[in-house]
Amino acid sequence: MLLRAVLILLILGYFVPAVYAHPIPFSYLDLRLNQGKLEGTLTAHIEDLAHDLNVSTPASLLDEKFAESKREAIRELVKSRLLLAADGQAVDVELSRIEPLRDRQALSIELRMEMFTGPDSKPGALRIQCALFPYDPQHQTFLNVYEEGTLVHQEIFTEDHQMFVYRTGGSQSRMSVIKEFIPAGIYHIFTGPDHVLFIIGLLLMGGSLVRLLSIVTAFTIAHSITLSLAALGIINPSPRVIEPAIALSIIYVGIDNLMVGKTGRDVRAWIAFFFGFVHGFGFAGVLREFGLPREALGWSLFAFNFGVEIGQACIVVVAAFLLAAIRKRSEAVSRRVVIAGSVCVSLAGTYWFIQRVFF
User: Fold this and answer.
1) Closest C-alpha to 289, from 180, 142, 165
2) SS3 32
3) pLDDT by residue (tens digit) across 132-165?
4) Sheet holding 26-34, edge to edge
5) How far is it, in rounded angstroms, from Cα 251 to Cα 246?
6) What whole-number distance in Å separates Cα of residue 8 and Cα of residue 43?
7) Which residues of 174-193 are buried (b: 16+ CB within 10 A; e: fewer)?
8) In degrees rounded to 5, what are phi and psi of residue 244?
9) 238-282 pLDDT, tens per residue?
10) In degrees rounded to 5, what are phi and psi of residue 319?
11) CA quadruple 186, 188, 193, 199: dihedral positive or negative?
């Protein structure tokens, strides 16, 4: 028993220092907005800085002269991993002072930030993208935003949450919301292959202008309802349910296209309406990441949804035009395109379903 106890103590003595060598996987960022000027303080642990600056002895960063000798390297590290924009315009981040904090085993880095705004003018939106120490997936950066000396917002940046938009409520707030959320909606629909494939799957069978408009309108109404409900926090189903359900909607569209020739029933508008509710929850998941501004909540919802509709309209026009051109040229080729396209749609949906459920 004594020998076993000694062995346990020896093992603990070996491993515990390794576990606690980096006890604080956190950094702290204070941003101060004062009379149109933006300043900041970044407090970073010497272990993190030493790792990314290739400094073999982290404690050496607590020496003022040595820390100052690393000013340029620290400057480049901060400028590449802390990106700010005021009303869409990039904010230039520069270092003004470096101060070792021996009691916290950290460096305090004073930041000077140049905003391209008029004197004493307040930006409507401040976008902050922060990924300071990606080598450590557990690292977190705690953000404090101050306006005129008052703490107005706190945020935590993690590996899965690296971007945040703070809105000051200034006179430009409404326009900045519109300018931000319309492109975000467009970007999301074009970079969401599952949404794009669902829409294309609905259009493969073609049809009259009235028929196509009814399909697109049904989808728009449905996803607008659930987008609003989820963004407002009224209904928030888990992504673990929604993402596989979106994949199932794609499978269903492909199979329905293949079955229409046998049944003769065209129920695409109903399919678009029913599954539009599901896709709306998917859109809302992206919208929530932006941080909805309370003072312009309606405008942000409207702008994002409007952006989605713009992107959706572009997809519909291009796909409908190409499919109509093929159909006009050859009905036989058109039928083959419908069959092949529907099979591909179903296979893609099946792949996403398996991936989202089991992986």
Assistant:
1) 165
2) strand
3) 999 998 888 989 888 888 888 788 888 888 988 8
4) 150-157, 140-147, 26-34, 37-45, 106-114, 89-101, 82-86, 125-130, 163-167
5) 9
6) 37
7) bebbbbbbbbbbbebbbebe
8) -65, -35
9) 888 999 999 999 999 999 998 876 666 788 999 999 999 999 998
10) -65, -45
11) negative
How many residues are present in the chain?
Answer: 359
C-beta separation of 149 from 33 below 8 A: no
Token pair belonging to 129? 């993208």
Packing angle of the helix pair 193-203, 173-191 (nearest 10 deg): 70
The first and second tokens of residue 159, run together, are 């590996």
- Cβ–Cβ < 8 Å for 326, 338: no
Give the whole-angstrom CA distance, residue 240 versus residue 109: 41
- C-alpha 278/C-alpha 195 separation (Å) is 11
Write the DSSP assignment of 236-272 as a string of letters: ---HHHHHHHHHHHHHHHHHHHHHHHHH----HHHHH
Would you kindly state where each structural domain of the chain is located, as residue ranges?
Answer: 20-171, 174-358
**Which of these, 282, 296, 37, lies nearest to 180 by C-alpha position?**
296
